[in-house]
Design brief:
Layout (H helix, E strand, L loop, with lengths): L3 E5 L9 H8 L5 H9 L3 E3 L2 E2 L11 E5 L19 H9 L1 E4 L3 E6 L31 E2 L8 E7 L2 H12 L4 E9 L6 E5 L2 E4 L6 E4 L8 E10 L3 E8 L6 H8 L28 E7 L1 H4 L4 E3 L4 H10 L4
Parallel strand pairs: 8-15
Antiparallel strand pairs: 1-4, 2-3, 2-4, 5-6, 6-8, 7-8, 9-14, 9-15, 10-13, 11-12, 13-14, 15-16
Length: 317
């Protein structure tokens, strides 16, 4: 049986490096194996010898063969388990916006964006359910915490994956969060700045405020409503994008987010037994006006546990 493959480069992959192309379409191929195949001229583009760093052009033909390699040397294909109808229905029900370039989903609290240790069910593993009319699955361009609910943007092609990734990196996309917190911040509106650094705890990703060695972290805040000095509903905007930034900043303001088991005060926390213990942090809005060159704001409806808490506490939203 022949092991020769001939694949035409798609328009969406124009300018992509060969190693990235293999990573996208043949993830079972280790980079070390690709380099070896290139050296042995078993990978060619339009009949010419190439390197892993060679940039591809749309319409070119990538030819590669494993025929001269022993069985033991060949990369083993990782078979991807087909999505169940239940998972397809689940992921499609999360869609709140879709056009030919971007999909936005309203991620529930409690499900991770990507897999990891002891995490088998995650958004990344269900993206095949969001192909719709496309051949390729949409691409992740940013992350939100497992326990944070709200907007997660997906790019439907390579061009918009690059556009959105750069826009997030350059902070051109304004992200607005809602949080229900214990206590009330000293400032009702303004900017809170406290540099963050990783706290070295094996197997437990955690951040801390570190004014000596931490990286700049800035949050814009506004108190939308409060119940005496006991609880507050905050509108938060990320001016920087550090890991767990909003959660650590709220804790530093002595206003930890309700349901946050990782960033909490050890004392003086009121007991609200009738409120769900899920994290009360929601990625509420993303302003895509920069990308679309016109006013374009996507808003994700609040999760049920936050709606119930707002009603129970009598907060005005």
């Amino acid at each position: 049986m022949s092991n020769l493959k001939i694949v035409k480069v798609k328009e969406d992959d124009d300018g992509m490096r060969l190693d990235r192309w293999f990573k996208n379409y043949y993830p079972e191929m280790p980079i070390s194996m690709l380099n070896k195949l290139c050296r042995k001229k078993q990978v060619k583009v339009d009949g010419k010898k190439v390197e892993a760093k060679t940039k591809l052009e749309s319409g070119q033909e990538v030819r590669f063969s494993l025929s001269n390699m022993s069985y033991e040397e060949r990369p083993k294909v990782n078979k991807v388990k087909a999505l169940s109808d239940k998972d397809i229905e689940f992921i499609q029900d999360l869609v709140i916006f879709k056009d030919k370039n971007i999909i936005a989903i309203n991620k529930p609290s409690g499900i991770a964006v990507q897999g990891g240790t002891n995490t088998n069910r995650h958004i990344d593993g269900m993206l095949d359910g969001l192909k719709f009319e496309n051949i390729d699955r949409p691409r992740l361009v940013h992350r939100i915490d497992k326990d944070t609910s709200g907007i997660l943007l997906l790019a439907r092609n390579r061009k918009y994956a690059e556009i959105l990734t750069k826009a997030f990196k350059d902070h051109d996309l304004q992200k607005t969060y809602l949080a229900i917190c214990y206590n009330v911040p000293e400032q009702m509106e303004g900017v809170f700045s406290a540099p963050l650094a990783k706290l070295n705890i094996k197997g437990n990703e955690k951040m801390m405020v570190d004014y000596d060695e931490g990286k700049k972290a800035v949050t814009e805040l506004k108190v939308l409503d409060k119940i005496g000095g006991k609880c507050s509903l905050l509108e938060l905007q990320l001016m920087t994008g550090r890991t767990h930034q909003l959660r650590v900043h709220c804790l530093e303001m002595k206003c930890p987010i309700i349901g946050d088991g990782k960033y909490k005060l050890n004392d003086n926390i009121i007991n609200i037994s009738d409120i769900d213990n899920k994290l009360h942090l929601h990625a509420w809005k993303v302003d895509l006006s920069f990308v679309y060159k016109q006013k374009m704001i996507i808003e994700a409806p609040l999760p049920e546990h936050m709606k119930k808490s707002i009603d129970y506490l009598g907060l005005d939203f």
